[in-house]
Design goal:
seven-stranded antiparallel beta sheet, 10 strands, globular
């Protein structure tokens, strides 16, 4: 997966098929054999869903302002003038304005999702943060000559389905697909392999659940799935050898399960909270929600804490009288920005952190990190 100079061949995800190799460790899940047709059916379904669900959000920029300078460019605030809510996590999302938007007649209700309109991009940047209540997007623009402008623009989500589509349909991933029939059969139910090292931990009525490679906790909305998951994870921490990664789809859902775990841990294993062993990783966490629940400790030494510091420094910028003070504050903001990813990775790898809670997108980005590749 590394090139001859020792650097990762490409910075996108997934890795290109030509440089892909499955991990060379034994992974016997003791699954029964299954039909190859399952993979063919799944590939067709994923291709269709990918085409149907790759939707962009069209917004209108009312005002643009500078939030902070940083070493890789400038962070701009794009004000859309109303509350904005994403159905998907905004992590990994790209905001951009194609030149074709100036030719408004070309855009029907759905035509903007055709890739042909991406030819000329007037400005483009990564969405770092979203203030849903005040209708603001914080966007990193690396090209200072292509700053955001007022008018319509698009936000394109990081497309998980594009990754699945590549794995199931790209010829370069054929070797990987040889392992999929048995796993797909297991998703249909009644196949629940017992793990090699069983643990008598967790809630008494879920002990059996915890002994299997996977289980499904199902229930209609409001029946207590999130509460039960939080209680189970907190109870499992009685076993000092347990270390758990919790992922969810959106930042809002991730915050919800994190708060459930934190509230349960205060009762079951308060020492884990005191030692900073439960962390909500990622810059999209709502600082306000954790403060309201008195669970700020779950954000300590994370990207969210850094963003809080950046927000404080940005607020002070308006109060400074001279450019020297402003320049120093901007320098501090840039240093904090550049350190966020490294801090998040350290928390992810730190064996002293017992529970890491983050979005699925954030977790998958670590898979291309050099430290994890070597592991």
């Amino acid at each position: 997966m590394d090139d001859k100079d020792g650097d990762v061949a490409r910075d996108d995800f997934p890795m290109p098929a030509e440089s892909y190799q499955p991990a060379r460790f034994h992974a016997d899940l003791r699954l029964p054999s299954a039909s190859e047709q399952l993979v063919k059916d799944a590939a067709a379904a994923i291709r269709q869903e990918y085409r149907d669900c790759s939707k962009w959000k069209r917004l209108t920029c009312r005002k643009v302002s500078i939030f902070a300078e940083r070493d890789r460019g400038t962070v701009w605030v794009v004000h859309v003038g109303s509350t904005v809510e994403f159905d998907w996590t905004w992590e990994g999302a790209i905001a951009f304005r194609p030149k074709s938007l100036d030719e408004g007649s070309l855009f029907s209700k759905n035509s903007h999702e055709e890739f042909a309109f991406q030819d000329e991009i007037l400005w483009k940047g990564e969405v770092l943060e979203v203030d849903e209540c005040n209708g603001c997007l914080f966007i990193s623009i690396d090209n200072p000559e292509a700053m955001p402008t007022t008018g319509s623009f698009f936000v394109r989500p990081f497309e998980f389905l594009s990754v699945l589509d590549q794995v199931y349909n790209d010829s370069g991933y054929e070797e990987l697909r040889s392992d999929l029939p048995q796993r797909l059969a297991a998703t249909e139910g009644d196949i629940h392999p017992v793990i090699n090292n069983c643990r008598a931990t967790g809630l008494p009525h879920l002990r059996d659940w915890w002994q299997h490679a996977w289980s499904v906790l199902w229930g209609p909305p409001g029946t207590g799935k999130t509460w039960t998951a939080g209680q189970q994870i907190a109870a499992v921490l009685d076993d000092p050898t347990e270390r758990i990664l919790v992922v969810s789809t959106t930042n809002r859902a991730t915050d919800t399960i994190a708060l459930s775990i934190g509230n349960a841990a205060r009762v079951h294993t308060p020492e884990t909270m005191a030692k900073g062993q439960l962390l909500r990783v990622g810059s999209g966490a709502s600082i306000r929600n954790f403060s309201t629940s008195a669970l700020e400790a779950m954000l300590m030494s994370t990207e969210s804490e850094v963003l809080h510091k950046i927000d404080d420094l940005a607020g002070q910028l308006r109060l400074f009288d001279n450019w020297e003070e402003k320049a120093l504050a901007r320098k501090q903001i840039g240093e904090l920005r550049s350190a966020t990813g490294d801090q998040s990775k350290r928390n992810f790898l730190d064996s002293e952190v017992r529970v890491v809670i983050t979005t699925a997108f954030k977790a998958t980005t670590f898979l291309k990190d050099r430290a994890l590749i070597k592991m």
